Hints:
Helices cover 75% and strands 0% of the residues. By secondary structure, it is mainly alpha-helical. The longest helix has 22 residues, at 28-49.
Amino acid sequence: xxxxxxxxxxxxxxxxxxxxxxxxxxxxxxxxxxxxxxxxxxxxxxxxxxxxxxxxxxxxxxxxxxxxxxxxxxxxxxxxxxxxxxxxxxxx
Length: 92
């Protein structure tokens, strides 16, 4: 996730620079793809560092939500909590 976050941060910075220079932009679909596959931290950081996509509600709400999911999954993997959640049964 770290490498993808750095890549996501870099791509958001390039897109912001291209927006200022009125050059070819990186599609929002590509930005979301990077965010969802593990770049949420880089995307969120770059949004506020570069002031990019901060007026777009889907980004302002969606990126922190994806980051929350990523952090939760990472904690579950790191601390082995996923076994406890997968091992429970319904009382009969």
